[in-house]
Amino acid sequence: MEMALKERGLEPEQLNISMELGSTQAIKEVVAAGLGITIISSLTVRRECDQKIFKSLKIQDAPVYRPLSILTNAHQNSQATQSKDERLLIDLLHDHRLLSEILSKDYNELDSIE
């Protein structure tokens, strides 16, 4: 997050950061208690937003990405030993266009993706 802020000309030192927490659950509890705001993955708060506990604001024209890794069993590291479902998931994760389309959809709209 600090790198994304710096890329946009904002130094984290300029923000009034009052705490840093080590778990998503702790962050959600602090925000629910009215003690601050945060930038967090929308996927981690979807249920709370649906329940109107939180209000999610989209960061427009400033996508924040974070590197992700695909973890597999070390003993099944070749395509020949992967299950069909594992191969489908890995292929999906490498299809940036389709993955972006899926992630931008509302959960109820996923049936319409071809």
List keywords for this structure.
single chain, 114 residues, mainly alpha, 2 domains, 5 helices
Distance between the termini: 33 Å
How would you state the average pLDDT, rounded? 78
Our count of domains comes out at 2
Give the number of DSSP strands: 0
Q: What class, by secondary structure content?
A: mainly alpha
Strand content: under 5%
Please state the CA-atom Rg, rounded to the nearest Å: 18 Å
Low-confidence stretches: none
* Helix count, DSSP H or I runs of 4 or more residues: 5
Task: Name the helicity range.
Answer: 25-40%
| Order of SSEs | HHHHH
Major sheet: none
The 3D shape can be described as: elongated
Report on the structure:
By secondary structure, the protein is mostly helical. It folds into two domains: 1-67, no CATH class; 68-114, no CATH class. The chain has helices at residues 2-7, 24-32, 46-50, 84-94, 96-104. The longest helix is centred in the C-terminal third of the chain and has 11 residues, at 84-94. It is elongated, with a radius of gyration of 18 Å. The two termini are 33 Å apart.
